[in-house]
Amino acid sequence: MTPVLQARGLVKRYGHVVALDGADFDLMPGEVLAVIGDNGAGKTSLIKALTGALQPDEGEILLDGKSVRIRNPLEARRLGIETVYQELAVAASLDIATNLFLGRELRKPGLLGTIFRKLDKKRMREESANHMADLKIGLRSLTQPVESLSGGQRQGVAVARAVAWARHVVVMDEPTAALGVKESGQVLDMIKRVRDRGMPVVLISHNMPHVFEIADRIHVQRLGRRVAQIKPGDHSMAEVVAIMTGALQVSEGKSVVTDKDAAEAIGL
Amino acid sequence: MTPVLQARGLVKRYGHVVALDGADFDLMPGEVLAVIGDNGAGKTSLIKALTGALQPDEGEILLDGKSVRIRNPLEARRLGIETVYQELAVAASLDIATNLFLGRELRKPGLLGTIFRKLDKKRMREESANHMADLKIGLRSLTQPVESLSGGQRQGVAVARAVAWARHVVVMDEPTAALGVKESGQVLDMIKRVRDRGMPVVLISHNMPHVFEIADRIHVQRLGRRVAQIKPGDHSMAEVVAIMTGALQVSEGKSVVTDKDAAEAIGL
Amino acid sequence: MAVMEATLPRRIISTPTAGPLGALLLACVFFAVNSDQFLTGGNFSLIIQQVMVVGTLAIGQTLIILTAGIDLSNGAIMAFGGIVMTKLAVGSGLPPVLAIVAGIAVCAAFGLANGLLVTKISLPPFIVTLGMLNVVFALTHIYSEDQTVTDLPAALTFLGQTFKIGETNVTYGSLLTILLFLFFAYVLGQTAWGRHVYALGNSQEVARLTGIRTQRLTISVYTIAGLVYGIAALLLVSRTGVGDPQAGQTDNLDSITAVVLGGTSLFGGRGLVIGTLIGALIVGVFRNGLQLMGVPSIYQTLITGILVILAVTVDQLSRRRTR
Amino acid sequence: MAVMEATLPRRIISTPTAGPLGALLLACVFFAVNSDQFLTGGNFSLIIQQVMVVGTLAIGQTLIILTAGIDLSNGAIMAFGGIVMTKLAVGSGLPPVLAIVAGIAVCAAFGLANGLLVTKISLPPFIVTLGMLNVVFALTHIYSEDQTVTDLPAALTFLGQTFKIGETNVTYGSLLTILLFLFFAYVLGQTAWGRHVYALGNSQEVARLTGIRTQRLTISVYTIAGLVYGIAALLLVSRTGVGDPQAGQTDNLDSITAVVLGGTSLFGGRGLVIGTLIGALIVGVFRNGLQLMGVPSIYQTLITGILVILAVTVDQLSRRRTR
Amino acid sequence: GGGEQKASTSSAKVGLITKTETNPFFVKMKEGAQKAAKAEGMELMTAAGKFDGDNASQLTAIENMVAAGVKGILITPNDTKAIVPAIKKARDAGVVVIALDTPTDPQDATDALFATDNLKAGELIGQYAKGAMAGKTAKIATLDLAPGITVGQLRHDGFLKGFGIAEGDPSVVCSQDTRGDQAKGQEAMENCLQKAPDINLVYTINEPAALGAYTALKAKGREKDVLIVSVDGGCTGVKAVKSGEIAATSQQYPLKMAEDGVKAVAAVAKGGAKPKGYTDTGVTLITDKAVQGVEAKDTAFGLANCWG
Ligand SMILES: Nc1ncnc2c1ncn2[C@@H]1O[C@H](COP(=O)(O)OP(=O)(O)OP(=O)(O)O)[C@@H](O)[C@H]1O
Ligand SMILES: Nc1ncnc2c1ncn2[C@@H]1O[C@H](COP(=O)(O)OP(=O)(O)OP(=O)(O)O)[C@@H](O)[C@H]1O
Ligand SMILES: [Mg+2]
Ligand SMILES: [Mg+2]
């Protein structure tokens, strides 16, 4: 099977900080791939490189096996890749419906739309209401500016937008970090439904229970590199955490202890 | 025992949104109190009111049983209340050490400090390094601006600052939301250590495992009000979640099912 | 949380133009009481004629400020455009209409240049347009040889002609200005381009991540603003009947004043172009009213300064109350 | 992540003043090649004298811009301060030193007024200082009755006196200006107040939540800036030898130019006051050099405009390279 | 301009500092200076203030020109008093300084003065207006320059003097600053007419302001029965006098001032004596409808001698 989205040897430097240090990446069709790693391991940098939000200094990206250059987020979007960024890409002073449709607004049918380019605000509001309802995020009004929402509600808007528009891949950078238990559950359900539609999902998360609940495969990022690709079933949560922190290493599918003290500390 | 920090009937309105609708609050000496609730339940608004970051429209706040008015964050700080806000109160272009000491800088000893008011940058850097090491947050350099850190590293800085300075109460609004597994663990350890020093901690979190691991008591916030105060031991996680979402109600310490469908849905 | 329904009066108060509108009405009431000549159709027609040039410049300024930019070069660009269209119309044998088109095109070109510098080299708009101000100012004087251009063909002064609404003479230029405001209110409020301008002003990074081509958008904003300055040039020419190389030297700050008085945030992303119209009218009403009251020039300056601050204060306090 | 050690040259390039400094040096080399009279101690002393007034104003402007504000009223405040100190010194029988103190105090008072309006009513600094510009301008003309004040006592012109460094005559005013820059570099970089100014500029909300008294801090910044404008007034008086009610009318934009050329961000929170000195010198060097080359004045305006843009471009590109 | 040629050590330099960059009056002055400099084989340097009243820029220009080694400086001072110390320094450094158009205060702060008398220019136009009104009750609007600019003040005062009234006379029903700008002149006139519709005499600081006033009057259909008088004598202005939009204007001669100034500096450079005292370059009332008792020339003369 050709991976849907693939990267080889990505490098990204910020001044004298190396955020990506030859990172590889493989996303298979129809899977939920969790990307985990310590803070600063380069997870966000990795997916930003994959979605056109930053340009890697070196390395190659392949979509459906073909080498591509994704120069900006718009190109990624055109390729059907939708992303929920960690910094919540929502425009604070605009309302929820406008945010959901930002960059692909609906116009009124007929002359009003083609010549006068008038927006169909009513239809966008209705469709937004449906998308938000899918996610079961309770909101009083779709016309209130996003800045007046709570952190979690705002996150919900970003997730709803990505899921509504994705045609090829959905990438989510810590989508549930600010969400409540109920809302988190809804996002996880949403991810499952997206996968059931046959679309692969990349999920960055620090929440191990979530990761183990939903991921088909786990990509472990460490010091700017992929250090392991594992299946949740093959390892315990503690082992995975140990791999993440460098206490264990995976070679040929088997875990190898490298840092004995650390491994003991976490109870292996 | 008098509660350390107490609130009665707090009300806060934003235009026609009521964020706090007569909320009560009690924090006992030496305890870790978790505040949980759905997105938009008014958790952040509650603790902002308690820490001087916003002025409630109605209601009373009591510190050690005495009614107080906390007019701004500085007054809260003077009363020994330190807070990690959800929006990460760090100054982006300043370095880590400066951020840790923002508002209570150390001056050089002697004339240089008293007359020339010269900062003792070296000492602040050293002490910062200690604080950050306590939290075991790995950072390359304390002189890099905070904006160049990853989201998790930035969160770490905010937590380290609060813990370093608190003298009376520590309040943390989702401190681990952006943190990796290792870093989250370190923050939880830190909270325990603070409690062991005898200082009470208020922890807002959506992470139920964390809450159950560390909280002595749980304050459940719903629709701008406290709807329950429970002990983690008395209820299962599923029950607590049900209370949070309104499927269960607590009366006289016992759970009562109010929304049968919802309760079934979550498997009670 | 309980939900209160927003009642209609509450809604009106909470629109961002309510404060400026209140200030404008207050000013009108004040001058109506203090001067017999103020409250006449003719005088209002006059005020609109007097603010139409700065008002039109302020439309372009609003667009740019909404993207969190600022334009210090707009008055200078307008002056250059005015000289180009009048010199071509009078001296070159070009048909007047083509001369007008050329003048407007030159303004749009300078707008484009601003936009390219702001996006392609990521320079701060303040400094780009400050530099451009000097450049265009110098070019105007070099190209015009400091000669006022007179004896203009009718096409260039047509907008200065009047027609009657009831008893009152209204110039076609005033009408065009009002139409421009309505047009841009529509564009900003009802089209995708308009929404993107707001998103860009909220945060360039957010707009970029949402897939908006921020560079292209920014360039289009500056170019369209330049085009609007070109129309302002035509309005100016038609109003004064000459091509004047000295024109527009204080119009950059005046147009910013109108925008800010109209409730638009200098940090971008918030504001309405209709507010700008109100802001321009506030300035015009004060200048006219004070003069009718016979206040000496220097005191007019004093009072205008105080009232600019006061108008924004009223606006700010009225917002605070609805919070 | 691997860590590369920052080597020394790399560090220098990455300081925010490297770009401006490079632009300044380039300009100096260019003029040294193109004019015999440029590269002399006397000429450099002259340039410093010529930029010291705007440079000092730009110190206050830097403080305010670092808080994400802006001050359009600084030139006008300086002019008023100059009139107050000269009129009091000449006409009132007040000892000259007290007259100076009074003039500086008046400037500080206007700064305070700006600060109060910005904080207590949360008005945007742009509009507050724009209003204040008009108010102070009018007051200057009313108070001075449009008369230039001459025959000043020696105390007011002392800073215009020179002393010798080697062969070169240097004015005490130049020295004071340099000392002021060093003082504020120290205050911003080495004291808690300075750090708080940066924090405030990064985000007012963040500063507030960290327990900084943002209102008090903002007011102190505007007041201190006003005080510095008062010193600029004294420098101006000592340089021109008169109290001039027309002074300073373009100094607001000129001082902002110096700040921005010096690499300080107009969005607040980033920048160095030493950069401002470099920025002011860039402007002064160009004016002086172009004059020495005999470039006609309108072309000087043109070239200055182009070079302002170019200098910031160089700065921007040099930063991009180190990214 | 002469700036294209590089600074050469051989030819002597002369500096010209005008009030502002852009007024056609000063452009003409530069033209005159340029012509004379070429004829004398000198190099001309120019500089200007940024706005009317800008003393600091002129001061800086003097310093830079002295540093560049000019033999002499011609200056139209923006601030007649404030510029004096700088001029003294330049003269101490051995540079000849000549005031053009506007005298310094005190006048002997410069070596010489080549100028028109602005007060006289105003007086002429005032006398003319008095005659032209022929006993009608005057309702006057004065469209002035800006607060505190000497030329504007002198012309305004001269007009009142020539008309035979004092400052504050009730016949002046509207006074407004225009900065000499056409658009502002128009706006000021519109508002004046709104305030006092029966205005029948308009004095303006210069012809652009006069033309602005004319446009405003025309919009009201009043252009025939209101008398507009002005000062300056630019070609656009004289044309407007010819076509009857402006009744009369006092013409000045910037070209001659500058030419004479450069020649005087050239003479010094060649070892001649320094120029001294006041040379009146003259002012002439230009009108096609002369009135008794006020000497005037017609527009044919005006057009032959106009600037701009
Ligand atoms: N714009 C930037 N400028 C400088 N350094 C940066 C920038 N963005 C990221 N970095 C650095 O690159 C490294 C990787 O950052 P990244 O955001 O990819 O980490 P992450 O794995 O997403 O961490 P987290 O889990 O905390 O979100 C970090 O050390 C960070 O400090
Ligand atoms: N500045 C504001 N303006 C308007 N409404 C606000 C503002 N701040 C909060 N709200 C509203 O008040 C309600 C409570 O918000 P709050 O931030 O306290 O919730 P929360 O419990 O902290 O949610 P989360 O878990 O998502 O952080 C929300 O509905 C929010 O939209
Ligand atoms: Mg990340
Ligand atoms: Mg919250």
Automatic annotation (TrEMBL), chains A, B:
A Pfam entry, by short name: ABC_tran
GO molecular-function term, one example from the UniProt record: ATP binding
Keywords noted in UniProt: ATP-binding, Nucleotide-binding
UniProt KW Kinase keyword: no
Domain of life: Bacteria
ABC transporter domain residues: 5-248
InterPro entries: AAA+_ATPase (IPR003593), ABC_carbohydrate_import_ATPase (IPR050107), ABC_transporter-like_ATP-bd (IPR003439)
Keyword hit for Protease: no
Protein name, per record: ATP-binding cassette domain-containing protein
Species name: Nonomuraea guangzhouensis
Automatic annotation (TrEMBL), chains C, D:
Subcellular location(s) of the protein: Cell membrane
Topological category with respect to the lipid bilayer: Multi-pass membrane protein
Keyword Lipid biosynthesis belongs to the record: no
InterPro entries, per the entry: ABC_transp_permease
Membrane-crossing residue ranges in chain numbering: 12-32, 44-66, 97-117, 123-143, 170-188, 219-237, 258-286, 298-317
Keyword annotations from UniProtKB, A to Z: Cell inner membrane, Cell membrane, Membrane, Transmembrane, Transmembrane helix, Transport
Signal sequence annotation: none
Coiled coil: none
Protein name as catalogued: ABC transporter permease
Organism: Nonomuraea guangzhouensis
